[in-house]
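Troubleshooting entry. The earlier prediction with inosinic acid gave an output that would not parse, so I re-checked the input for stray whitespace and re-submitted. Clean input:
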Amino acid sequence: MNYENDIAKVLVSEEEIRGAVKRIAKQMEQDYKNSDKKVLIMGTLKGAVVFMSDLMKEFNLRAEIDFIKVSSYGSGTESGGVISLKANPDYEDLSNFNVIVIEDILDTGNTLSWLLDHLKNKMNAHSVKLCALFNKPDRRVKDVHIDYQGFIIPDEFIVGYGLDYNEEYRNLPYVGVLKPEVYNINK
Ligand code: IMP
Ligand code: MG
């Protein structure tokens, strides 16, 4: 069983993603090259893992990496309400770091506005910037500033390159839109 038959269309190809990853990494290098604080590349589990591993290889400055897990949707395609941390960073105090949060997609902004505030105000990060590969502005509920952005996309549910539907499709190397019948099977 493979995933190709479930995909209605490819929205962003592997090559387009590669281009965006390089562009973002270069922009980050410019922004941090003169800082005396180390960069902490902070990936959000699980969706940002694929993007983060490609991005960090292109980022040519001193850096550490870590992961954070914020409570997510559960299954289905709509955002849930309550937010909590399911996995914490190794450091409790981030005042020695310029933190770059790596996110797969900014949707309603509920998760990220909470997380950015938490890193700044509870964990005392020296600075916090947000990098999101995808941005769905039509869905925004909370105002969140994106410092590094890959692609602006329409209000469609996408999978692949880390993004899931019911925890599947994360290992597709490109980003696609699912056929409607795939959702219906799971209803
Ligand atoms: P937000 O708090 O609504 O911005 O939620 C963002 C999170 O929702 C992302 O990190 C994804 O895990 C998930 N999400 C939002 N839109 C999509 C999508 O189109 N495909 C897969 N996951 C999505
Ligand atoms: Mg996510």
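This one parsed fine. DSSP finds four helices and nine strands in the chain.
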